[in-house]
Design brief:
Its cofactor is Zn(2+). This protein has 506 residues and is α+β, with helices and mostly antiparallel strands. The chain is built from 7 helices and 35 strands. The protein is 17% helix and 31% strand. It has a 6-stranded mixed β-sheet with strand order 8-16-17-15-14-13, covered by helices on one side. Strands 18, 19, 22, 23, 32 and 33 form a 6-stranded antiparallel β-sheet that branches. The protein has a 5-stranded mixed β-sheet with strand order 3-12-11-6-7, with no helix packed on it.
Length: 506
C-alpha cells in the first residue's frame, strides 16, 4: 500500500527589502515507506509562496529544474549524518537568472533522488529533511529554510555510476598525465595550459603558507589568524599541489550546464568541464586555472571542501564572519590561490637559507630550481632537506700554532703540567709551581690560557709536544663539526643533486 506522508510545513520569513516579508512553505513527501535495493529513492519537494509578495529562491538549491545539484537534504541514519556524494559545482556568484521567483500563492515541485546523491550503502530507517539557502549570506542566521521531516526504510545499495563517465563512441584519450573524453584539440590544449598555471598557483600558495605569512591575502579569504585553521589550510594546499602536479586526472568536456565544472568528490580526479569554463581566462579571478584548484580541493582524498559561498563578496563575508567555514569553502581556496603576488609566476621564488643565514636565490632551468654548482672534487650529499659537502683536509693553523707538515704545533709540553683541557671554547694547561705558564700562554688567575680552539679542531699531546689538528677545509659552506653545511632548501620544496649541482624541486 502506498502511503503519502502528511505535511508539517515550515514557515520561513525571508526579508527581500526593507518594507516587505515573504513566507515560504516547504513540503517533503514520499509515496512509499520502504525502498528495495533496486528501486530509486525519489522524494517530492513542493515549495509554496503563502505570502502576498513574490518570493525568490536559488534555482540550484531546489530539485525543481534539474533535480538535486547541491547538498540540499539533511539525511541521517540512526541519528548519524549521511554523506552527500552528489555533484559539487564551481559556479559564478548568483545573478537574477539563477533565482526562481514564486508569485503569491504559486507552488512549484521537483523530485529529489537520494540514490544518486547520498550514501545509502547501509540498510535502515533514514530520516530526511529538505533545506534550502534562501540567501547566500554568511552573516545571516536565517539563510536556511526547512521542510517537515520524514522517515523511510531504505535497503542498502551501491551508488549508481555517473552516466557522463560511461565510455561510448568517444573513448578516454591519454594525454601527458591527463586523460580526455569528448575534448577537441583546442580544448585539450586549454586544459593542459590551465593545469600548468594551476600548479603555479598551488606552488605559490603552499610556499606562502609554509613561510608562515599572514597578511591581507590570507585574512581576506580565511579570516583572522588561528594556528589550527592556518595549519589546516596549509595542509590543504600541500595536497592540492601534489594532486595538480602528480595525479592522473581525467577531464570530461561533455557538460552543458551553466557552471564552470563539477566533480563527484569520492570519484578521485575526474573533472567535468562545463560551459562557463571555456570562455574564462587562463589565470585571474574565476579563471580556468582557479577552477582546477577549486574542483581538486573538493575530492575527499585532497581537502574535502564544500560550496558554502560562491563569488568574491560572499567568500570575503564568510572569512570575516565565519572563518571556520571559510577554510572548508572551495571558492575561498580558489581566490586565495588566484591572488598570487608573482607576475609572471616565478617557480624559484622561495630562497635557500645559506649557512650564514643569508638567502640564496635559485634559477629556473626549465625543470627544477638550480641553486649552485658543486666544486670539482667535493663529495656532496643531502640530509634533512639541506645541502652538504664532505670536509677536506688543510694546512691551515690558527695563531699561535704553526703547521709542522702534519699538524698544528703549539709548544713543548711542560713537564710540570698535569694536563690540558678545553673550557668555554678555549684551550688551557694546568699551571706549574708559582702559577708558572710557558710562553706563549699566560696565567688567567686559575690556569694557563693557550688559545681559542677553532670549531672542528682537536687538541692532543704527542712526543711531549702540544698540538691541535688543522682546520677542516670547506670548498663551500661552513664546517659544522662534522661536514660542510651549505644551506637549507625551502621547506615547501625537496632538495636534490643532479650532475654537479644542487637543486630543489618545482
Amino acid at each position: 500500500m502506498k502511503l503519502t506522508c502528511l505535511i508539517v510545513a515550515a514557515l520561513v520569513s525571508i526579508p527581500l527589502h526593507a518594507d516587505a516579508k515573504e513566507a515560504l512553505q516547504i513540503q517533503l513527501s514520499s509515496e512509499a515507506t520502504k525502498f528495495p535495493a533496486d528501486v530509486p529513492v525519489d522524494l517530492k519537494v513542493t515549495l509554496t509562496n503563502v505570502s502576498d509578495s513574490p518570493v525568490r529562491i536559488l534555482g540550484y538549491h531546489t530539485p525543481v529544474i534539474e533535480g538535486i545539484e547541491a547538498d540540499i537534504l539533511s539525511v541521517s541514519l540512526e541519528r548519524e549524518p549521511v554523506e552527500y556524494i552528489g555533484r559539487l559545482y564551481k559556479r559564478a556568484a548568483p545573478t537574477d537568472r539563477d533565482y526562481l521567483t514564486l508569485k503569491p500563492g504559486e507552488s512549484v515541485s521537483g523530485v529529489a533522488s537520494l540514490w544518486d546523491n547520498y550514501d545509502l550503502s547501509v540498510s535502515g530507517t533514514y530520516t530526511i529533511q529538505y533545506k534550502t539557502e534562501v540567501f547566500i549570506s554568511p552573516r545571516s542566521d536565517t539563510e536556511l529554510a526547512f521542510s517537515n521531516v520524514i522517515s523511510v526504510y531504505i535497503e542498502g545499495r551501491k551508488p549508481r555510476p555517473n552516466p557522463d563517465d560511461l565510455d561510448g563512441e568517444t573513448k578516454i584519450v591519454d594525454g601527458n598525465n591527463e586523460k580526455f573524453k569528448g575534448c577537441s584539440d583546442s580544448e585539450k590544449n586549454a586544459i593542459i595550459s590551465a593545469r600548468q598555471h594551476a600548479l603555479n598557483y598551488a606552488d605559490d600558495s603552499y610556499d606562502y603558507l609554509v613561510a608562515g605569512t599572514v597578511d591581507t591575502r590570507y585574512t581576506t579569504w580565511f579570516g583572522d589568524f588561528d594556528g589550527s585553521r592556518y595549519g589546516t589550510v596549509r595542509d590543504h594546499f600541500r595536497k592540492i599541489r601534489d594532486a595538480v602536479d602528480g595525479e592522473d586526472i581525467k577531464f570530461y568536456c561533455n557538460c552543458n550546464k551553466d557552471a564552470f565544472a563539477y566533480v563527484i568528490p569520492w570519484e578521485n580526479f575526474k573533472i567535468h568541464l562545463c560551459k562557463d569554463f571555456w570562455p574564462a581566462s587562463t589565470t585571474g579571478t574565476d579563471s580556468k586555472a582557479g577552477t582546477l584548484i577549486h574542483e581538486i580541493s573538493h575530492f575527499w582524498s585532497v581537502a574535502s571542501t564544500r560550496d558554502i559561498a560562491y563569488g568574491h563578496s560572499a567568500a570575503m563575508d564568510l572569512a570575516d564572519s565565519k572563518p571556520h567555514k571559510a577554510i572548508k569553502n572551495a571558492d575561498s581556496h580558489e581566490y586565495f590561490a588566484e591572488a598570487t603576488p608573482y607576475s609572471p609566476y616565478n617557480p624559484c621564488a622561495p630562497t635557500v637559507t645559506s649557512h650564514t643565514g643569508a638567502p640564496i636565490t635559485a634559477t629556473w632551468d626549465g625543470a627544477n630550481c638550480h641553486v649552485m654548482n658543486i666544486p670539482a672534487g667535493a663529495s656532496p650529499f643531502i640530509y634533512n632537506n639541506s645541502y652538504y659537502v664532505n670536509a677536506g683536509s688543510s694546512t691551515s693553523c690558527p695563531a699561535p700554532s704553526t703547521w709542522d707538515g702534519a699538524n698544528c704545533y703549539i709548544l713543548p709540553y711542560p713537564s710540570w703540567s698535569t694536563g690540558y683541557f678545553v673550557w668555554s671554547g678555549s684551550l688551557y694547561l694546568t699551571p706549574g709551581p708559582g702559577n708558572a705558564c710557558p710562553s706563549p700562554t699566560w696565567f688567567d688567575g686559575a690556569n694557563c690560557y693557550v688559545m681559542p680552539l677553532p670549531w672542528g679542531s682537536t687538541p692532543f699531546k704527542w712526543s711531549n709536544n702540544l698540538y691541535i689538528t688543522p682546520l677542516p677545509s670547506c670548498p663551500i659552506g661552513g664546517f659544522d663539526g662534522a661536514h660542510c653545511y651549505v644551506g637549507a632548501a625551502p621547506a615547501s620544496r625537496t632538495a636534490s643533486i643532479w650532475g654537479s649541482s644542487f637543486y630543489y624541486s618545482h
